[in-house]
Design goal:
Number of domains: 2
Number of strands: 6
Low-confidence stretches: 1-8
Distance between the termini: 59 Å
Strand order of the largest sheet: 1-5-6
Mean pLDDT: 80
Helix content: 40-55%
Structural class: alpha+beta
Strand content: 15-25%
Length: 182
């Protein structure tokens, strides 16, 4: 069975923001090389994610059969009183005459989470209907699949924004270095 696809989580977003903040602070402290390092790390990380999203455009639609689906209640990180409902599903599919079992709803699992039980139930019903119409499989790694490929593009602007901010910071840092040299 395939592993869950990675997604942007609260922790990932926090650390990405923290690294970018370190880059900006380095700029203000007149440490442009350190700023370039941190901004470069943000740029590299975001660029890799964007490439992953772009590769999903080439994923192939395959027939699938739903094995299991239900709505799970999971405790959210912030407090025991705050919880979210997360759809849980398993499906089988065949790609190039090989059978696989999938469980990923979307590349960005947070899109399928909700605090509303009824909304989660409706989404779970939508999963059941959509799987019968087919799922998307990575032709380069057929063990990787998702039910909703297009949901991945919702988080792409976060990473594209990270790339733009990193480039701006790197340019400003380079200008600082040039000014120090002159």
């Amino acid at each position: 069975m395939q592993e869950k696809l990675e997604s942007i989580s609260d922790k990932e977003f926090f650390f990405l923001g923290l690294v970018y903040a370190a880059s900006v602070v380095s700029l203000f402290l007149q440490l442009p090389l350190l700023s370039i390092f941190f901004a470069g790390a943000v740029f590299w990380y975001c660029y890799i994610k964007i490439k992953k999203f772009d590769s999903m455009k080439n994923w192939v639609k395959c027939d699938a059969k739903l094995i299991k689906w239900n709505t799970l209640k999971k405790i959210y990180n912030y407090s025991p009183e705050s919880y979210i409902y997360v759809p849980d599903c398993l499906y089988t599919y065949t790609y190039n005459s090989q059978k696989y079992i999938g469980q990923n709803i979307s590349f960005y699992p947070r899109d399928s989470m909700t605090q509303d039980l009824f909304e989660s139930y409706q989404f779970t019903q939508n999963i059941k209907y959509t799987i019968n119409k087919g799922i998307y499989v990575n032709p380069d790694n057929p063990e990787e699949s998702v039910v909703f490929r297009d949901m991945a593009f919702k988080s792409a602007p976060i990473y594209k924004g990270g790339v733009v901010l990193a480039i701006i910071t790197i340019i400003i840092s380079i200008i600082q270095v040039v000014i120090k040299v002159i």
